[in-house]
Design goal:
heterodimer; A: alpha/beta; Nitrile Hydratase, Chain A; two-stranded parallel ribbon; two-stranded parallel sheet; 4 strands; 12% strand; B: alpha+beta; Cyclin A, domain 1; SH3 type barrels; 4-stranded antiparallel sheet; 8 helices
Chain lengths: 192, 217
């Protein structure tokens, strides 16, 4: 991006102004960054998915009221106040986007990756999802329908990917380790 | 507003470039930009809708040539000046030129609880929802000059109500300081053919969240 070299100075100056004027505490900035670099990320969502794969009663609660079911595992808050979980199957594959900005379920997936916020993804996934999936190396059978969820309001979506064959008997922890971030957005599949 | 941020269906942006899971930031200033945007909302001088509106209504050329956190910072500067918290002379000077006004400031100790609590958008309302799950609806063909969350590609289109979410704060009003005016919020499902015509993928459906006033009676 052509204007990027000046951004470091511009942000530094803005921070100095806000701190000097008493609107922002530097320690609070560090705490926000630490939260999203250390505590809140896609491993939370992977925990939810693995629980849903191994506990049928939990799966039912997740599909009925995702906000409450995700809170059972200790996750919730900013940008995850109104959650909906959608489950992939052989018949239907779900993909999530925000064509207008970058709405994303922070408590379960952390901060969005750059591609999720990019014009390339936001413009194309609603009209040519199979083309976008191909950019991720994902090909679905023509018989699998695709539902794209454009999160235009405050509802946030978590995709529950299909559990791969060959994982019978695996523990929740072992399953969570194979659940990728992209599989919970719908641009990836879980494989072993 | 019909903004350039409303990207659904636009073409020519090239392939999507996947990234590894741990690459969330690409420069130190992006970390600070995220944190500043969140912390600077603490004085409560604008809503999340005003903040989205400020980003989406950046000049089109600037929007498309700025990286995402650069868009956030440019919007934050606009919000701060509009709220009277920072002067445009101070932004130009790159330093504070006068003392701030008393404001509610986010303390570091509050951060975990504030982020873990969030801010719900649902509100109780008296009237029942006008539409039910499974009902056929049509979005309005409308081109508001203010903030809206109805993407252009989904205007004037026939769909089916998939979910009813309760009443939520209306961004179209709240973004402009005109009050929350909560409305029933629906997930509406469209076929790809309805949105994009006969050449669309026959297996494609697209869902959006639509406020009640986005739907024709």
């Amino acid at each position: 991006m052509g204007n990027e070299p000046e951004m470091a100075l511009r942000v530094e100056a803005l921070e100095a102004i806000l701190v000097e004027k008493g609107y922002v505490e530097p320690d609070a900035l560090d705490a926000i960054i630490a939260t999203y670099e250390r505590d809140v990320g896609p491993r939370n969502g992977a925990h939810v998915v693995a629980r849903s794969w191994t506990d049928p009663a939990y799966r039912e609660r997740l599909l009925a009221d995702a906000t409450a079911a995700i809170a059972e595992l200790g996750y919730g808050g900013r940008q995850g106040e109104h959650m909906v979980a959608v489950e992939n199957s052989a018949d239907e594959h779900h993909v999530v986007v925000c064509t207008l900005c970058s709405c994303y379920p922070w408590p379960v997936l952390g901060l969005p990756p750059t591609w999720y916020k990019s014009p390339a993804y936001r413009s194309r996934v609603v009209i040519d999802p199979r083309g976008v999936l191909a950019d991720f190396g994902v090909t679905l059978p023509d018989t699998t329908r695709i539902t794209v969820h454009d999160s235009t309001a405050e509802v946030r979506y978590l995709v529950v990917p299909r559990r791969p064959a060959g994982t019978t008997g695996w523990s929740e922890e072992r399953l969570a380790a194979i659940v990728s971030r992209d599989s919970m957005i719908g641009t990836g599949l879980v494989t072993v | 507003m019909n903004t350039v941020a409303d990207l659904g269906g636009a073409m020519g942006f090239g392939p999507v470039l996947p990234e590894p899971e741990d690459e969330v930031f690409h420069a130190e200033w992006e970390r600070r930009a995220l944190a500043l945007t969140l912390a600077a909302a603490s004085p409560g001088r604008w809503t999340i809708d005003a903040s989205r509106s400020a980003r989406e209504s950046l000049p089109p050329g600037e929007y498309l040539t700025s990286s995402y956190y650069a868009i956030w910072i440019k919007a934050l500067e606009r919000l701060l000046v509009h709220a009277g918290l920072v002067g445009s002379d101070e932004l130009a000077a790159g330093r504070s030129l006068r003392p701030g006004t008393p404001a509610r400031v986010l303390a570091a100790a509050e951060v975990p609880a504030v982020l873990a609590t969030g801010s719900r958008a649902d509100r109780p309302v008296d009237p029942p929802p006008r539409f039910a799950v499974g009902e056929q609806v049509r979005t309005r063909n409308t081109h508001p000059t203010g903030h809206t969350r109805l993407p252009r590609y989904a205007r004037g289109k026939a769909g089916v109500v998939e979910r009813v979410h309760g009443a939520h704060v209306l961004p179209d009003s709240n973004a402009h300081g005109a009050g929350e005016r909560p409305e029933w919020l629906y997930t509406v499902r469209f076929t790809g053919v309805e949105l994009w015509g006969g050449e669309a993928d026959p297996g494609l459906s697209v869902e959006i969240e639509a406020f009640e006033s986005y739907l024709a009676p």
